[in-house]
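Before the break, one more example. Copy the sequence into your notebook; we will annotate it together after we see the structure.
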Amino acid sequence: MKYRILLAEDEPSLNETIRLNLELEGYKVTSVTDGKSALKTFKSERFNLVILDVMMPEMDGFTVCESIRLENNSVPILFLTAKNTGADRVQGLKLGADDYLSKPFNLEELLLRVQNLLKRSTNAIVSIPSKITIGGKSVDFISQEITSTDGKKTPLTKKEFMLLKLLVERKNEVVSREHILETVWGYDIYPSTRTIDNFIVSFRKYFEVDPANPEYFVSVRGVGYKFVDAD
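Here is what the structure looks like once it is written out:
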């Protein structure tokens, strides 16, 4: 099996050096130089590992990582970054990264980390929290459906699933409309912020006892939305 790696690094010479060394190890590498291209490429192909620079044009590595994790919990993600503060490491890991390597780094160490991440992901049994309860209704993130107390099932669309997962993962935090558009819808052409409002209206119909006075999906005027973990 030839492992497929997505490399996103905006510095051309470093991008080329990493790509060549990975290919010499037998990996099939697709390399890009900005965040939007990284996300677009990830959505269009299948990869066994993603290597992300944090500071990239168009979209930073943290946002790319978060967007990938809304759809894929299992692909290993390795951050490369010149930022070496504890806060940056924590942020990357909270967003779902598996490893973190600070620049400048030794190429042999990078190759060993890549090898270990691929070995770990190949042998691992992926286990993610599959169900939560909102307003007495069960949300299954594996089957992507809502189950009412009477057993009625309502399937979620792909974008409903991604938006709900983002808000739940950021529970009790305000998530801006701009961040939602960039993370859920991704790149190139964003829908209007009114589109998000319509999705929130749907969530309130699904989960709220009184949609006009929401308990779980709260609007923060001029900023965005917040999921309140009230159960």
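Confidence is low (pLDDT under 50) at residues 124-128. The chain has two domains: 4-123, 131-227. Try to locate both features in your own notes.
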